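Data deposition worksheet. Section B asks for the primary sequence of the deposited chain exactly as it was used as input, without tags or linkers unless they were present during the calculation. Section C holds the resulting structure in token form. Section D is free text for depositor observations; keep each observation to a single sentence. Incomplete worksheets are returned to the depositor.
Section A, Depositor: J.P.
Section B:
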Amino acid sequence: MKVKKSLNILVLTLAATTFTGCSDWLDYTPKDKTTEAQQFSSRAGFYSAVNGVYNDLSSNSLYGNTLSYGAIDLMSQRYESGSNSNNMKYLWTNFRYTDSNIESTINSIWQTAYQTILNTNVILEGVETQKGVLPEADKNMIKGDLLALRAYLHFDLLRLFGPVYTRDKDSKVIPYNDSTEPKAYDLLSSSEIVNDHLLPDLETAEACLTAGDPIIKTGVADTTNTNGDNYRNYRQLRLNYYAVALLKARIYQWMGDSEHAIAEARKITDNKDAQKFFPFVNPDKLLGNTYNPDRIFSSEVLFGIYNDSRSDIFKNYFDGANLSSTNMYRSYAGYIEKVFPNQADYRFQSQWERNGSYYDFSKFKEVTYDQNNTPLYVVMMPLMRISEAYYIAAEELMKTGQKEQALSYLNTILQKRGATPLTASVNNSDFTKELKLEYIREFWGEGQIFFMFKRTWSSIGSEFNGNTSDSWSSVSPSNSRYVMPMPTSEKENR
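Section C:
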């Protein structure tokens, strides 16, 4: 990352939350090192800073839009793009990276991600330099959270702006910033990013969280917390111990390292505590609840972000009753029925609503609830869920010739979704197709589908996007489509 020479101070955007009603965010901005030291002079100050960098993840430039249900999902080709070349749907679906509007968004992704990384590094430095402020458990938890957060952001930047690892791991692609120094950071190769930075950060994060993360003993909410604060609660909104394991599995799979990907995935799939802390959705409670349904299956979410505007997503992007076809994100007629051949699937029943010959995506639809007792799932955007660990294990076991075990992991999720399990006679091609369709069913609106197609260097044909009407009905993989270009402003500064 290039930092302008005129930058002589670090600006740290902080936010604090009480979480009494999942609200009351307070912004605070230190202007110099003295104020920064004051901020880190108390346990509460550290946690307000941590809340701040996590709050940055929910910005529109990152996972509050662009990297969840927005641009990243449009790039995975599952919506009608229309013919209006000025419409953002059309531009993203057709990979028009040089359009000025798209360039602006790409620049915002890059800047917001690296600014959040810089802020994260400031807090990590404070953890090491401000002696005696934090209890040892809190120090370990914050350090683990933030090292994982730094790795999480860098990995998504690598997946966006870098080539597929197994096709090209040596070209220089992005910088890795593990410093608070305002300087230019060299571009590194995918191999250097992963082996010299991502994995070491996550190994340290895992060790810290093993020592300090209450989720290991008490689950997603720290029930032993009796001092009246929420700093150790709501571990699903932080990169906790189990989220780190899944992130490592993602990275190893991206590298083509089946052995280590399986091992990391099994830290979740084969862990009795993980099964207890992240139980699969109860279909009776889900499908029998029309008042405040948990459409995101929140009990299964390993990591998500807080977004108190989440209900606006459906209104602004998916509501077929109030949006024109030009403005709404709408899949091709007949496509959703093909994605869900078994309409008893809980995801189909709870997350899709018939609208004429189309279906509206309702995963993020507004939920009616008691304002004095806001359910966490009302304001949560899922980014990592337990099912992905099963998919990773299944895919990598199949690659290594362990078909029986691969089927067991994939069928676990199919059965938990009320879908039809695969039989032992399924061939490799049909297994792979079913796994890709599972990514589409499971992670719609969560930012993972495009990366799956990119990682596997797959064409996105009509069976995966529903488009049979034009030349884009089958999108072939290429670097010009699957690799996002570095922002023009960044290139000009190098």
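Section D:
The first strand starts at residue 14 and ends at 16.
The mean pLDDT is 91.
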